[in-house]
Amino acid sequence: MSLPDVVWLNTSTSLQCFAQPLLARLSHQVTLAQWNYQQDPDKGCSFDEAIFQLHQYISTLKQPVHLIGHSTAGLLGLFYTRRYPDNVKSLTLLAVGNNPAVDWQSHYYAHRPLMNRQKLLNAMVYNLFGYQDKQTLQDLITILEQDLESSLSPNSLFRQMNVLPGGVSVPLMIYGGQNDLIVELEALQGWQPWLKAEDRLLTCSEGRHFFHFFQASQVGEQILKFWNNFSQPNLTKDPSLCNVIPKI
């Protein structure tokens, strides 16, 4: 089996469902593997531990790879790329602003002292996905509750992390939603002073925070164009790796 050219980073089991349309789109053109980090609920969140485990995996590939991640998974990719740039061909960050530590949980915890949990989760669903019918609303609340309990996040009720942008020597793509209420357009544009000539900053007009779910075809096309700029020969599909993409 061929080694992957691309590694999708996942730090949230509950939110991974929103990546599936994009992964399905990309898997038609690239050899892609998913790397998952499972946060131990009995231990504090540790990016050092996540970086260590990710490095163990990437070291087995024996070649640089394109890293891609959404939100906190993108932050993990940023930390890893800063520490091990020789292992990374390029870094693609989805919904990661110029304070890369900002995620939906940071907004949740900032407002938690002012609202009860149920009302706040209702509001977060609207901010993340727009208006939903009653059943879908409840399903999404359940997903967010699971994410609060079991995902890697730099934020909590007692601490909000700040991380500076930049520090990436490899080609970098920043991609976000224009109507994202978590990572707003201004936060995406805040990357501009740190971008190199080969870097890209793109926005999607629709889809909010999970724009890559709602606009998977458009987002996938732009990401593939970016990767092909730094791949010789161009990335191609390897059928033997298709099984790393779960069915939608």
SSE order and pairing:
Blueprint: E1 6-10, H1 20-27, E2 32-36, H2 47-61, E3 65-70, H3 72-83, E4 88-94, H4 104-111, H5 117-129, H6 134-150, E5 172-177, H7 185-189, E6 200-204, H8 211-214, H9 216-228
Parallel strand pairs: 1-2, 1-3, 3-4, 4-5, 5-6
Helix pairs in contact: 1-9, 2-3, 4-5, 5-6
Shape category: globular
Task: Supply the number of structural domains.
Answer: 2
Structural class: alpha/beta
Kindly state the percentage of residues in helix: 25-40%
Distance between the termini: 23 Å
- CATH fold-level label of the largest domain: Rossmann fold
What report would you give on this structure?
The C terminus is likely disordered. The relative contact order is 0.20. The chain is an alpha/beta fold and 248 residues long. A 6-stranded parallel β-sheet has the order 2-1-3-4-5-6, with helices on both faces. Helix content is 38%, strand content 14%. α4 runs antiparallel to α5 and α5 crosses α6. It folds into 2 domains: 175 residues, Rossmann fold (3-Layer(aba) Sandwich); 47 residues, no CATH class. This is AB hydrolase-1 domain-containing protein.
